[in-house]
Fold:
Amino acid sequence: MTKPKAAVSTTNTTVQEPDPEGASAALQLLAQKPKRIPPEALVQKDYDTLLTVLKHGYTYTDIAAVYGRHGIKVTPAQLKLQVEARRHQMEPAEALATSQHQVTDGRLTAAANRTKVVVKAVPLTDAAAAEAADILALREG
Structure:
């Protein structure tokens, strides 16, 4: 004779009512922000700021930590790769813009030697100042 099978207890089982409106609302929230922001997009958006931060002695690890504190997952290696790629993309355009040549009496004269560079100081926004404070706190802490 076989033993009777034990009855399955349903006292701890909760039944969830279908909620299509709640599911739609959750999907709309997901649609408002991407699940992952590609490093290329970060570098494209913040390229000038990244170069300034790097020039001031901060590392890609410092920068990745700032992004991480704001919910953006990116590695220092990804940032470095994208910054270098963007820098190499910019070099040919910069070289072309600064090395326009003129032909004078059969000789090639570089106009780049007479190029004047103007640097404009831009005040920090509150958000940029907060980011700088975050980086300083990270380095000191």
